[in-house]
Amino acid sequence: MPDTATPYARRRRVGLIVPSVNAVIEPDFAAVRLADITFHATRVMLRETTPDGLRAMNAGVEAAAELIASVTPDVVAFACTSGTFIDGEAGLARQTAAIEAIVGCPVVATSRCIIDAFAHLGLTRIALATPYLDAINEAERSFLEGHGLSVVSMRGLGLSGKAIREVAPERVAALVRETDTAESEAVFVSCTDFRAMEIAAALEQELGKPVLTSNQVTLWGVLRALGLPLSLTGYGRLLA
Q1: Cα–Cα dist 172/235, whole Å
Q2: Is the torsion defined by CA of 165, 167, 169, 174 positive or negative?
Q3: Which residue of 53, 100, 107, 134 lies most exposed, with the fewest beta carbons within 10 A?
Q4: Does residue 231 fall inside a structural domain?
Q5: Burial 199-233 (b: 16+ CB within 10 A, else e)
Q6: 84-112 pLDDT, tens per residue?
Q7: How far apart are CA 21 and CA 44, in angstroms?
Q8: Does residue 65 belong to any structural domain of this protein?
Q9: Per-residue confidence at 35, pLDDT binned at 50, 70, 90?
Q10: How many CB atoms lie within 10 A of CB 148?
Q11: pLDDT digits over 117-147, tens only?
Q12: Sheet-wide strand order for 107-109
């Protein structure tokens, strides 16, 4: 439970840059009920989760950074998975540097958090479950494998834009089961607008292996950037 006696002014401010259609990450983070952090979101227009749609969204990220900089955040997260991997490592590095130059604080990006989280856990063979179209899935596979991960299984739902947030957690869980293989050391469930974080812990118990999600790894990256302890229960072993 949060310490309601702690003044907001003394809590750490986290800025979130999120795709305009995203209706999942803010409820996910609110559900964790962190006592010493406040989250402040700004949005950047995303119409379709396609390569062209993501690049059009990314063209607006610097304007969104200007807006979130006005809350004087302690850390900023660009909380979009596909938007941060669509142009590979070089695109991600340019994107992060541009945001940092505007906000004047550490910046975490969901795709970087994925790589760092798997390195932290010492895992390399992953099953990749996504809501995406095939073109986005292949771009994600290329990004992950470019960082030394082996995607041993991959399934997507073929969705784009607003349709992603409408997928019920039960269908997300079924997708994870369909994607998991005996060869995979962990499952990664992609997209910050996909209702996966709320079921990650239960799926870990069922499958007997880590289940990482976009919102989970992004929150993990934020807490690390703030230097705060990681001891959250109920959201998977990465945060625990």
Answers
A1: 15
A2: negative
A3: 134
A4: no
A5: bbbebbeebebbbbbbbbbbbbbbbbbbeeeeebe
A6: 999 999 999 999 999 999 999 999 999 99
A7: 9
A8: yes
A9: confident
A10: 10
A11: 999 999 999 999 999 999 999 999 999 999 9
A12: 37-44, 12-19, 75-78, 107-109
Q: Are strands 211-213 and 37-44 parallel, antiparallel or unpaired?
A: unpaired
Contact 85, 111 (CB under 8 A): yes
Looking up residue 105, the CATH number of its domain turns out to be 3.40.50.12500
Which one-letter DSSP state was computed for residue 35? S
Return all residues near 162 (Cβ < 8 A) that are at least 6 apart. 21
80: tokens are 């979009």
Q: Is 19 helix (H, G, I), strand (E, B) or coil?
A: strand
Under 8 Å between Cβ of 136 and 49: yes
Which residues, 6 or more positions from 226, have their beta carbon under 8 angstroms from its beta carbon?
A: 12, 14, 37, 74, 75
Structural domain for 161, as ranges: 112-213
pLDDT given at position 3:
46
- Amino acid 23: pLDDT: 98
| Sheet (strand 211-213) strand order | 150-156, 125-130, 186-189, 211-213
Residues recorded for the chain: 240
Query: Residue 67 is encoded by which pair of tokens?
Result: 């807006």
Domains of the chain: total: 2
Alpha carbon separation from 112 to 116, 163, 183 (Å, rounded)? 6, 25, 24
Sign of CA pseudo-dihedral 131, 178, 155, 152: positive
The neighbour count for residue 40, using CB atoms within 10 Å, is 15
Is there a domain that residue 232 lies in? Answer: no
